[in-house]
Specification:
By secondary structure, the chain is α+β, with helices and mostly antiparallel strands. The chain has one domain. It is built from two helices and seven strands, in the order ββαβαββββ. A five-stranded antiparallel sheet has the order 3-1-2-5-4. A two-stranded antiparallel ribbon has the order 6-7. Strand 4 and strand 5 form a beta hairpin.
Length: 115
């Protein structure tokens, strides 16, 4: 049996209190959370404050091929919907956090953003 990858939606607030939303893929959610936390604390723009950690709102196990495909589709959909200002590495800077975001994988998943 092939190992699953995860498609996930996560967030953090930067040092200017902007809501940063991210869609991504990983085969290990906890390892990826630590990597994001470490990397975003060092980022020159949209720096994560030291007392924060990257948080997940939603994740779903899929095949590796499907995680990458749905990540790309979701990113493009969010860009078209104007979810926020897109910055490199699949992050969206949101002046005001959306109340929910949507991911379509055969059916629509509505992900509450109540942070």
């Amino acid at each position: 049996m092939k190992e699953k990858e995860y498609l996930y939606v996560g967030y953090y607030y930067d040092s200017d209190n902007n809501f940063i939303l991210k869609v991504g893929t990983t085969n290990d959610l906890e390892r990826r959370r630590k990597e994001h936390t470490r990397n975003y604390r060092r980022a020159k723009k949209h720096t994560m404050p030291k007392e924060q950690m990257f948080e997940y709102l939603w994740s779903k196990p899929l095949s590796k091929y499907n995680t990458l495909r749905y990540e790309d589709k979701t990113r493009e959909n969010w860009k078209n919907l104007g979810i926020g200002t897109f910055i490199r590495n699949d992050r969206f800077v949101c002046d005001n956090p959306p109340t929910e975001v949507e991911i379509t994988i055969r059916k629509k998943y509505k992900i509450r953003v109540d942070k």
